[in-house]
Amino acid sequence: MKTVLMVAEKPSLAQSIAKILSRGSMSSRKGLNGTCSVHEYSGTFSGQPVRFKMTSVCGHVMTLDFLGRYNKWDKVDPAELFSQAPTEKKEANPKLNMVKFLQVEGKGCDYIVLWLDCDKEGENICFEVLDAVLPVMSQAHGGEKTVFRARFSSITDTDICNAMARLGEPDHNEALSVDARQELDLRIGCAFTRFQTKYFQGKYGNLDSSLISFGPCQTPTLGFCVERHDRIQSFKPETYWVLQAKVITDKDRSLLLDWDRVRVFDREIAQMFLNMTKLEKEAQVEATSRKEKAKQRPLALNTVEMLRVASSSLGMGPQHAMQTAERLYTQGYISYPRTETTHYPENFDLKGPLRQQANHPYWADTVKRLLAEGINRPRKGHDAGDHPPITPMRSATEAELGGEAWRLYEYITRHFIATVSHDCRYLQSSVSFRIGPERFTCTGKTVISPGFTEIMPWQSIPLEESLPTCQRGDSLAVGEVKMLEKQTSPPDYLTEAELITLMEKHGIGTDASIPVHINNICQRNYVVVESGRRLRPTNLGIVLVHGYYKIDAELVLPTIRSAVEKQLNLIAQGRADYRQVLGHTLDVFKRKFHYFVDSIAGMDELMEVSFSPLAATGKPLSRCGKCHRFMKYIQAKPSRLHCAHCDETYSLPQNGTIKLYKELRCPLDDFELALWSSGSRGKSYPLCPYCSNHPPFRDMKKGTGCNECTHPTCQHSLSMLGIGQCVECESGVLVLDPTSGPKWRVACNRCNVVAHCFENAHRVRVSADTCSACEAALLDVDFNKAKSPLPGDSTQHTGCVFCDPIFQELVELKHAASCHPMHRGPGRRQGRGRGRGRRPAGKPGARRPKDKMSALAAYFV
DNA sequence: GCAAGGTC
Q: Where's the Topo IA-type catalytic domain (predicted)?
């Protein structure tokens, strides 16, 4: 029997589609990556009995990147990234092993049906899947067609069955337009990001970002926030005047009237109007009106609307809201949360999900009434053809979901119920008055039927005192007419919800990526989220945007995305050649880049105002090995040492503190050593600023300290202070922390393992001898006389921290309890021994070095 | 270390 492989974009869709097509009679199993499932069933395909295998990928299979050697920032000129630097497709998520998985499942299959989402990205993933699977599928006979594309606009029985009945072909042009987008985004984004970062980081000490990124989505997003900031800054308040009149109603209540002129900006004119009205005793009713109006029920919920409400009403940031929604989705509480669609499919079962809510403690009454009296037809929304709107899938209580998840679920459910409720109907009445020659109006709203506002009470029309009943020709006594002086006020900072609206309007990002871009500009320290989830740009954000304005405003304008997208659409429609469009657009941006580089002084002038030059930042810490002058420690991220005399900068490990280490020097380069520490209870190690940036040995990595240095004789090196293999990680070595006394510790030089060894010892040394049982280096310990844990009066003891019965008692492994071979049963390390031949061969007691590190150390003697 | 786009 022949086999048909079918592939969807995500596991949940594979399951839904298989369920529909197999009419529920499928057998399912997990794939080799544990994430994707395979659903199998029998059926017919082009008139023959076949076995169907429905599975999925997890979004894109591949991602685009530069060849490895072009990812070395200090070796590649960013300008090369526009054309010379070759790119390659890498697996998007190596952990998922997607190519292997597809090949295992696709091996020997005769046909493939592609069920990827019906958008450009989906079309592109079709070809990623084909690239993986076609080579392992059965060879077609006599030119028979074997590759098919299913096109569907919703996950409903009819749509899916129709798609299966009318299979087409994947659209190569659409896929190519995505290839072009990927390459443009990569080349342009990385070139600008690397250039900016390197240029400014090497110049300013207090830039509060370790990465000064640029991108066609994130930069315009920042632009919106700075544009609002500029409007606030340049705002000049204006004084204006308003007439306010009070009339006395028949029930002796006073009623405030609004002036029909609203306001005037000239005091004398306002005064003139006041003079013309203030002596009037009566206000004549000129007209009355009563109109029935409706406040519309909401459209069905899509992602961006959910994110807007989450931010403005629930106080949840978009990234967090999306994570919460995803959890609710994978737990089966809501439908797929990434959709642009605000229209329920024609055959969508609205009553099913509604019935599920009929016994909910919070809204049972409303739901029961809707079910009894009949639901209202939802408003016609936009059908993007992706997924149905976000709806609740099953009832849940506050106790069940808890906290944030509950609040989001509650909103989604109330919104869903609202979409099948009636509009809110109210009466808008207004009365126009004349006082002297001036007209004033009073309006009021009274609710006729609350409709959907019953389930969305925050949307309800506020209760107001009802207007007096009066008719044209009536007159009411004037209480007073007064003139108020007011000032126009500036706009406030952009709210997240407003930003989402702007991004959506200008096509910046997608429903899935909008939260990511907003998160990016926060993480890069371009904006901060203030109360009310308003985004205030930082100095850095402002300087960047103003710099772009100055040099090339197109780099920050929202059109940067749409202009490129226009070109890409030409590829998708087959009206332009992929190579040509890509080449042309890259050329345009390459010129922009060179102009930007040449004009960077313009942005630099703005930087100088807000930030301090490297040489003027930081405090003197340790001496440079070249000029022997003090270098300055710059604490702002990324923390580093700067030698003003040599004009050199040395990066330091992040997320810890740096001190001078007893004015000790590195024997190789004469730089004074620094002591890095992750906190009082964490680990610490000495490091040489120069070696850490220019590792002296091939096996010492950049950014590491003396605890990874294989110098054979330096007293601070791994070779001298290393004890034995780490108890947890594969490659690490436990190293004595020479500064940890009197509570002595050893810490792994790769992972977080820390072992507390001895208290009350005034000296601990790593001995030249090794343990005969496990090959770890022995420790030579001098305890305090008064507090020695040793038997009798002895204060000195030499032994293995792992095997010696006295020391064993004292050692406490943090994060790694009972991982030592001594304490666990047969394991992977059994019999391998612990020692790592710290010392070069030839010294007394030393064994032949076994591993590469010590082999190298031996070589350097 | 970088972009933006999928999805987990």
A: 171-593
Please report, as a single letter, which amino acid is at residue A312: S
pLDDT value of residue A814: 64
Token pair in block for residue A229? 């900031």
Q: Which of A204, A336, A426, A578 is catalytic?
A: A336
A510 touches strand B (CB under 7 A): yes
φ, ψ of residue A732 to 5 degrees: the values are -80, 160
Q: CA nearest A764: which of A809, A719, A797, A730? A: A797
Rounded mean pLDDT for each run of 10 residues along chain A, 861 residues in total: 96 93 93 94 94 97 96 95 95 95 96 94 96 93 91 82 94 96 97 96 83 96 98 96 92 90 97 94 94 96 96 95 92 91 90 94 95 95 89 93 94 97 95 96 93 95 82 92 96 97 95 96 96 96 97 95 92 94 95 97 94 79 80 77 79 81 84 80 82 84 86 86 82 84 83 80 84 83 80 82 79 52 37 41 34 40 26
Q: Residue A159, SS3?
A: helix
Contact A101, A31 (CB under 8 A): yes
Residue numbers in A 167-226, CB below 7 Å of strand B: 181-182, 185-186, 189-190, 193-194, 197-198, 201, 210-211, 213-219
Six-digit token pair at A375?
């639901």
Q: Residue A300: CB partners within 8 Å, gap ≥ 6?
A: A341, A342, A343, A344, A378, A379, A381, A388, A389, A390, A391, A416, A419
Dmax (CA) for chain A in angstroms is: 118
CA A192 to CA A206: how far, in whole Å? 21
Query: How would CATH label the architecture of A179-235+495-611?
Result: Orthogonal Bundle (1.10)
Pairing label, strands A282-295, A87-91: unpaired
Strand bridging mode A754-756 / A761-770: unpaired
CATH fold group of domain A2-58+93-170: Rossmann fold (3.40.50)
Q: Where are the alpha helices (DSSP H) in A166-213?
A: 172-201
Q: Which residue has the tokens 């991982």?
A: A819
How far is the CA of A263 from the CAs of A260, A266, A486, in angstroms? 8, 9, 9
> Number of C-alpha atoms within 13 angstroms, CB side, residue A418?
25
Counting Cβ atoms within 10 Å, is residue A230 exposed (0-12), middle (13-18) or buried (19+)? middle
Give me the amino acid identity at A34: G
DSSP letter at A671 equals: P
Instruction: Count CB atoms within 10 A of the CB of residue A588.
Output: 15
CATH number for A239-296+425-487: choose from 3.30.70.890, 3.30.70.360, 3.40.50.2000, 2.70.20.10. 2.70.20.10
**CATH architecture, domain A303-421:** Orthogonal Bundle (1.10)
* Per-residue confidence (pLDDT) for residue A102, from 0 to 100: 97
Query: From CA A537, how far away is CA A228, in angstroms rounded?
Result: 9
pLDDT for A680 equals: 66
Cα separations in angstroms, A541 against A270, A301, A669: 43, 33, 39
Measure Cα distances from A99 to A130, A255, A502 in Å: 10, 74, 38
Does at least one atom of strand B sit less than 7 Å from the CB of A387? no
A266 and A489 in contact (C-beta within 8 Å)?
no
Which residues of chain A (692-721) touch nucleic strand B at CB < 7 A? Answer: none
Is A336 in the active site? Answer: yes
Q: Which residues contact A324 (CB under 8 A, 6 or more apart)?
A: A316, A404, A405, A408
pLDDT score, position A168: 95
Q: What is the dihedral of CA A302, A306, A309, A312, to 10 degrees?
A: -120
Does the CA dihedral A193-A198-A202-A208 come out positive or negative?
positive
